[in-house]
Amino acid sequence: MPAPARDLKVDTVLPPTQPEINPIAAQLASSKDPAGNAAARILSKYLDELLRVPGTNVRFGLDPILALIPGVGDTVASSAGVIILFDALRSGIPIPVFLRMALNMGTNFLIGLVPGAGALASVFFKSNTRNLKLLLAWQAGHRHTVRRSTLHYYTGILILLAMVLGFILTAWAVYTWLFYSAAQAVLHALGFS
Fold it and tell me: Which of 74, 120, 137, 145 is deepest in the core (most CB within 10 A)?
């Protein structure tokens, strides 16, 4: 007995029988990411976690590889990492946390400018992974933890800046005293005092 015919209407849209094969679209569609951070996740993976050093747990991505190209590589990697910052803004993250994320990106950019050593340091700093973790923690409802860690982060930066300023002022005072003492000794030796 033949199968019964389906009643089709003219405006009926049938689902495709075979899905299109596109690895990037499949990865975006398969990620269970209710907040829509799939692009940020993919960028974080490719920029910071793509490859593993054999025999170790040290992972690195394209960011330190691009950092080997002076100036241009860091700019390209940082530009790609900015997408994570856009996702953070889109999700309504507060300005202090956003500035912390931007400082992570800026620090990674500055680290990468040091020839050779900057690329190595970028393997361990991983600003994109740090920013993604901050974003996901914020979106997962751990806002209090993110705010507290951000407060500690800024407190640490202020303490570091105060220490640097203290060292500069101390060095300035010591060098001024040494210069003044040396000038007095020279003037005294020349008979001008």
Answer: 74
